[in-house]
Write a structure and sequence with these properties.
Strand content: under 5%
Structural class: mainly alpha
Largest sheet: 2 strands, antiparallel
CATH architecture of the largest domain: Up-down Bundle
Order of helices and strands: HHHHHEEHHHH
Oligomer: single chain
Length: 223
């Protein structure tokens, strides 16, 4: 029997859903930090990862506001796909690093592998597992893993809080919509070059090359 999907939320609902997901991400991270202080490292790791997934859910709502090709099926499957949500935030985190991302085709495979590993680690922080004759306990996830995950998630939330502040959210969406054609065409024509330029711009570097790529491809029809 075919799966039936609810309609795609309307613009105002997507905005409200983004804000609700972001607020919940902040609450989950705060709880993770409390657990960390109490020495409850496995659960701290698990809640920090859930916070990251909520941020990804919010990002999906923003994408649905600017990408008309996102269908109800696309949206709701991605909304509930744990590994997919982690894949998006892993990619976002990589953009925040200074190290070049490199070829996108290779990086996409790497990101999905990291997402799968993070999802498994999150579950290990909550449940007892049994693999290849060994019992895996949540207590095997230690302080270092919890601290690193909390820092990664906090950095992403801090960036999103500035980039998508409530007072400027509509302006950001309008700017993305205006540049969307050029961005899409540039991603198809030269994804590696575009990603490198975006990474530089996100770190406060020169934006000239990124702008040139977008405007160069804005009026080009790419099959």
């Amino acid at each position: 029997m075919p799966v039936s999907y609810p309609p795609l939320p309307l613009g105002d609902d997507l905005r409200a859903l983004f804000r609700a997901a972001f607020a919940n991400a902040e609450d989950l991270l705060a709880d993770a930090q409390l657990l960390l202080k109490s020495g409850r490292f496995p659960r701290a790791y698990g809640l920090a990862t859930l916070s990251w997934q909520e941020l990804s859910k919010g990002q999906l709502c923003l994408l649905a506001m600017v990408l008309p090709e996102i269908t109800p099926e696309d949206f709701w499957e991605r909304f509930r796909d744990h590994e997919g949500k982690l894949g998006r935030v892993h990619l976002f985190a990589d953009f925040m690093h200074l190290s070049p991302i490199g070829p996108m085709a290779e990086h996409a495979r790497k990101v999905m592998g990291e997402a799968r590993s993070t999802q498994n680690q999150k579950l290990r922080g909550l449940y007892v597992e049994y693999r290849r004759g060994k019992i895996l306990l949540p207590s095997q996830i230690g302080e270092r893993a919890a601290r690193n995950q909390i820092k990664t998630v906090k950095d992403a939330l801090d960036f999103a809080a500035v980039a998508f502040a409530p007072g400027s959210l509509d302006e950001v969406i309008a700017q993305v919509c205006e540049l969307l054609g050029g961005l899409k065409n540039a991603m198809v024509a030269g994804p590696d070059e575009l990603v490198a330029a975006m990474q530089i711009a996100m770190h406060g570097g020169p934006q000239d090359h990124l702008q040139a790529l977008i405007y160069q491809h804005a009026a080009i029809d790419v099959e």
